Amino acid sequence: MFKKFFALFICIVFCLSLVACKGDLPTIEIPSEPSSQVEYLPQSSSEPESSEEETSSEAVEEDDSWKMVLVNGWHPLEEGFMPDLTQIDTRFANEGYKFDSRAIEDLNAMCQAALKDGVKLWVISPWRRNSTQTANFNAQVQRVLANNPSFSKEQAEDEAATVVARPWTSEHQLGLAIDFNSVEESFENTAQFRWLSEHAQDYGFIMRYPKSKEAITGVIYEPWHYRYVGPENAKAIKASGLCLEEYLEKYK
Length: 252
Ligand SMILES: [Zn+2]
Fold this sequence. Notes:
Strand content: 5-15%
Distance between the termini: 100 Å
Number of helices: 9
Bound molecules: zinc ion
Largest sheet: 4 strands, antiparallel
Strand order of the largest sheet: 3-4-6-5
Order of helices and strands: HEEHEHHHEHEHEHH
Radius of gyration: 34 Å
CATH topology of the largest domain: Muramoyl-pentapeptide Carboxypeptidase, domain 2
Number of domains: 2
């Protein structure tokens, strides 16, 4: 008899525990909801992937735009602008001379190709920090004032800016401009200039301040100053016969 009661008791306890488990089911279902979300995860994670692809294709387009950034007297850089820089191959530049990391390979390759043709390109002015640009500009203002004592400070600065860019308006601060070998107009009579005239565009460089474009660039003829715009742009700009300002105005 006692055994029957005990068995019944065990049976009741078992049934109660089952009911209790069923009662718990909703709380079990709650964690099952997130797990059903987990099932969606591959889908939702594929969305970020596709949007990442979109982002990266956008990034590629953005990547291209840095090559054509216009910096001149009317389009200054943001103060404090600092490109990512890499040391230029020391066969072609002094230690500490740097250039935009995204274009450094093309610069080194161009200098290497020239060397192979027996032409030694030498970087005399690469990326420039603002303190240097400011010092250069102030020194040029003093030279102008020395030659033109009647000039006001403003007049002297305006004239100085056609030779040395004002702080934050130099492509050298952008990190995409190089002065080669000599900052004399006679550079146009050198083997280096002839080589650059023939090949620079293949490596993404243009002579940035051509003769007869002074009024548009705001800068004197500088056969030694080359600007990186990427091979595709450089070839198109060279073929157009336009300076960068004109080209951007017409095609961008
Ligand atoms: Zn220059």
